[in-house]
Amino acid sequence: MTEVPYDGDGNLLHYVDPWATPTMRPNEPFKAALQVEMMESGRSAKYLIWRDGDGRRFPMFIIDLVDMLQRAEVLQGAVEATWIVRKRGQNYGIALAPDGQA
Asked: What is the domain extent for residue 80?
């Protein structure tokens, strides 16, 4: 996957509606300090929403949360790390970037 969908405010889209016109950006690792905001339910699964210091939102699949908890330091619901976007089915979410990607 080379490009991922964002809305006009810079939020990563979890799902792209067929009638939406998202901004597609290169899927490159990015550094960010994110604070967990909430859990939401999609059609088939629950996922987390993370927010950065500028208020942009990033969904995360629960399976990627498990990996993140094993590899990252979480302080009061916040994680500063390098992230990458993953696609599962028709949905998008962030995950910790593999070691060595920065």
From this structure: 3-96
Instruction: Please tell me whether residue 85 adopts helix, strand or coil conformation.
Output: strand
Dump strand ranges (E) for 8-96. 23-26, 30-41, 46-51, 57-61, 78-88, 91-96
Q: Alpha-carbon distance 7 to 80, whole Å? A: 23
Residue 43 lies in a domain: yes
pLDDT, tens digit, for every residue of 34-84? Answer: 999 999 987 777 899 999 999 999 999 999 999 999 999 998 889 999 999
In a domain, 102, yes or no: no
Separation CA 62–CA 60 (nearest Å): 6
Domain count, the chain: 1
DSSP string spanning 19-43? Answer: T--PEEEE---EEEEEEEEEEEE-S
Indicate whether 101 belongs to any domain: no
Among 81, 102, 42, 38, smallest CA distance to 94 is for 81
